[in-house]
Write a structure and sequence with these properties.
Shape: globular
Order of helices and strands: HHHHHHHHHHHHHHHHHHHH
Distance between the termini: 34 Å
Radius of gyration: 23 Å
Strand content: under 5%
Number of domains: 1
Helix content: over 70%
Largest sheet: none
Length: 457
């Protein structure tokens, strides 16, 4: 009975999210329905007796309250600080300066599709400092896209490459990275260095090669003629030539990353540094540098509101999504679905490896259907320690491929934000773009799953 209810609720939830219903309330409602169903049918309890409010209907809301409290003060503050800093860097033009500085050497190659593949690799590197897929895509669309077009690459190829430049959310300050590391009980920097980097080091060259041959072949198939033209001038929103800050501003977005990696177990371990401090230090340095440029203290101090707005937006959008996902996961656990799935996997001979593939498949399909990598990963990440413990594997071995699969599969969905944004700015159909991203992203999925088993299983 519990399995049947879980399937009905899960399909209903997925249907609503695909239909563009707000995912947070849908996940909350789905979790509450599962929890209340479990209690009324005698299939499980929401909270242990010692933690209960004394009234079973209130226990579900007690769980939500406790989850909000723990997430907002720990993981949530990390996520909010990162987002606020990213918005401030974009506001002062430092992110654009970083992109412009790093793309310039590629122009010397004079080989359109080689430059295209190199630009994709560059985008992955920039993702360490600019860890918003849609945000990075927008920056690259106003800087790299005109260059690729001027070299003779088709619009569809250029958009497909740019829209997949963060197909692995692999920054140590990425939202999913922070959640995965927190769930696995690992320091984010350790998780990044020991687990994410080895996988990314294998996936990145594979996807770059696949993009090179896929886009070149599809351009030829579609009759596109490779013909270089004059470099398209980059315009701002008012149609004027874009004004960038001095090129040394390119250093500012990478300051927190440099601090995080320098003051860690990798190098200077006797000085303590965490993500939140690094972001605040980066913000302070950015404000000082910005004052030196504009000489207007009132404007510089007013601009910090952009940072505060970034904090609030992450609380409203990401932290609530994490808590909503955990509420849905709690419902699945309470009604007994997870135990039933694990027992079925064990008796069917799947074992740990089979269960990992099942979880990755669910995440990947959900990412394509929902148009989001975060929503399905946040919904299922909380279940992973329980599943991993019963399968006798480390949680990180399941979380890592699930996390990467979510972001890779996201780039195959025509309704995801990064595809929609890049397609709109490039003047092409998102459905045509995902035809160009499907092969490279399928290659990314196969490669990351294989590498995970080889390196860590």
């Amino acid at each position: 009975m519990g399995i049947v209810i879980s399937l009905i609720v899960t399909f209903w939830m997925g249907y609503l999210i695909v239909k563009k219903y707000k995912p947070q309330p849908v996940l909350f409602i789905a979790g509450l329905v599962l929890m209340f169903s479990a209690v009324f049918l005698g299939l499980g309890k929401i909270l242990p007796v010692k933690e209960s409010t004394g009234f079973v209907l209130f226990d579900a809301f007690e769980f939500i309250k406790k989850t909000f409290s723990s997430r907002a003060g720990g993981l949530g503050l990390n996520i909010m600080a990162v987002a606020g800093f990213a918005r401030y860097m974009d506001h002062i033009g430092a992110s654009k300066a970083l992109v412009k500085l790093t793309i310039t050497p590629l122009l010397a190659l004079r080989a359109p599709y080689l430059v295209m593949a190199a630009a994709w690799i560059l985008g992955m590197m920039l993702g360490l400092a600019i860890n918003s897929a849609s945000g990075l895509a927008m920056l690259l669309m106003v800087t790299v896209f005109p260059i690729l077009i001027s070299l003779g690459v088709s619009r569809l190829s250029a958009v497909a490459v740019i829209a997949t430049t963060l197909c692995l959310d692999w920054s140590p300050s990425d939202t999913g990275t922070l959640l995965a590391a927190n769930t696995a009980g690992i320091d984010p920097v350790t998780y990044w260095v020991q687990y994410q980097v080895p996988i990314a080091a294998v996936v990145i060259p594979v996807v770059a090669v696949l993009h090179y041959f896929t886009q070149k072949w599809m351009d030829k198939r579609d009759g596109h003629v490779v013909q270089a033209s004059e470099l398209v001038a980059v315009k701002d929103k008012d149609g004027e030539p874009e004004k960038l800050p001095p090129m040394f501003y390119a250093i500012l977005p990478v300051i927190p990353l440099a601090l995080i990696l320098s003051f860690s177990n990798l190098w200077i371990s006797w000085i303590k540094m965490d993500i939140i401090k690094a972001m605040f230090i980066g913000l302070a340095i950015g404000m000082i540098v910005e004052y030196g440029r504009v000489r207007d203290g009132k404007k510089v101090l007013a601009d910090i509101q952009v940072f505060f707005d970034g904090l609030g937006m992450q609380m409203a959008n990401v932290i609530t999504l994490i808590v909503a996902g955990e509420t849905f996961a709690k419902g699945l656990v309470t009604i007994g679905t997870i135990d039933a799935i694990i027992r079925s996997a064990q008796t069917s001979g799947f074992g740990a490896a089979g269960m990992i593939i099942v979880m990755i498949s669910i995440i990947a399909v959900s990412s394509v259907l929902m148009g989001s990598g975060n929503a399905p990963f946040f919904a299922f990440a909380a279940l992973t320690p329980t599943v991993a413990a019963k399968m006798s594997v480390a949680p990180v071995v399941m979380l890592l491929p699930m996390h990467f699969a979510a972001s890779a599969a996201r780039a195959m969905s025509p309704i995801t934000a990064v595809i929609a944004v890049a397609s709109s700015m490039g003047g092409v159909s998102p459905f045509d773009v995902v035809k160009r991203t499907a092969i490279p992203m399928a290659g990314a999925l196969i490669t990351l799953v294989t590498a995970n088993f080889i390196f860590f299983y």
